[in-house]
Amino acid sequence: MPDLPAHTSPAFPPLHSLRPEHPHHLEADDYVLAGATASSSDATSTPPKARRPSQHPPPAIISPAFTPPATPGVSTPSDPRPRPPRSVPVLPSGTDSPRPELLEQLPIVDCEVRARIPTTTGHEMWLHVYRNNVDTKEHLAIVFGNQIRSRSLDREREGETELERMTRGAYVGRLYPGRTHSRVEAIKRAEGAMPKAQPQPQSQSPGSSASSDAGDAAAETSRTELPLVRIHSECYTGETVWSARCDCGEQLDEAARLMSSPHMSPSGGVIIYLRQEGRGIGLGEKLKAYNLQDLGNDTYEANIMLRHPADARSYGLATSMLVDLGLGGEEGIRLLTNNPDKVRAVEGPGREVVVRERVAMVPLAWKTGGEKGIKSEEVEKYLSTKIEKFKHMLTQQ
């Protein structure tokens, strides 16, 4: 079998295993697709490890071996006493950390439209649709709070009418029947509510509605906390068809819960929703991987057996979208993740976005002793693989 390209993350020692499924660590040449057979003499006389010398996995193709100093444990609090989630400071990457293989230049993104979405929980959020120069997919930004606006959306377009601006969501405040201007200041001037030379945008408290006048007036509202950000990859099975093979749907719900609460995220938050199903291999290949898992392989091994990277995702689009939403620069963000690779990858090749703190996502079943959350043998194996092979920073304590 020919050597495979580097598809794995840096070789760290295992952190913790919920249910060890294999007595040894399989490597690329040990994976055999269905239909492949070995001679009876090989099967009986030569164990797998004796056929070839042990080798360390190849280096990461996306992100470096960068691990923030600690895991905060249970850091996503629940009611009845809401409070901002505890987080762990992320130190700048040192000289000892290998450089990731990131794009030399970030993709170009453009927010085409946004709309106010009232949710079933009683909160509101803004759904943004982005286009880019890398693929033809519609990637999304789900924005909570008043202080986060898209620069490309608000940019004036030649020949555009006020109705066209409002139709694509480039307005401040709220829409209502009979509104004729996208800018609140223009409405107030037309009504004689304020002098033309001294516009004074209304002040709104964070989390009270899905938009504010701050974006149009470029108001620099002091933030009591850094905005909370979640980079979430599409998972049709976990989010739509109730799959208990992963915790993706639960993570999406938990991120929205935290960001919609002014107590837990007073500066608002953003969920960057990237259309990279199945860690970047697509839904069809993901279902093939599920079948291989039912044959006894884990999610990591299944992707390799299908000749895909263990994790084919990238985060350059997420970085560009965060910059467009005004979350770039040294002020920084809090990143809601258990994935150490994602911390550095989201920052971009020139640290266009700075991750100041990492907030852990603890499975709901772990936090509640199994009373809530996903309960299945498959999700336990999935979490175990995340910890052992993808080096996610999870703890039950």
From TrEMBL:
Highest taxon of the lineage: Eukaryota
EC number: 3.5.4.25
Gene Ontology molecular function: GTP binding; GTP cyclohydrolase II activity
One Pfam entry name: GTP_cyclohydro2
Family annotation (InterPro entries): GTP_cyclohydro_II, RibA, RibA-like_sf
GO terms, biological process: riboflavin biosynthetic process
Entries under CDD domains matching the protein: GTP_cyclohydro2 (cd00641)
Disordered: annotated segments: 1-102, 192-224
Biased composition (Basic and acidic residues): 18-28
Major enzyme class: hydrolase
Keyword line: GTP-binding, Hydrolase, Nucleotide-binding, Riboflavin biosynthesis
Catalysed reaction equations from the record: GTP + 4 H2O = 2,5-diamino-6-hydroxy-4-(5-phosphoribosylamino)-pyrimidine + formate + 2 phosphate + 3 H(+)
Gene3D superfamilies recorded: GTP cyclohydrolase II
Compositionally biased region (Low complexity): 34-46, 197-219
Similarity annotation: Belongs to the GTP cyclohydrolase II family.
Protein known as: GTP cyclohydrolase II
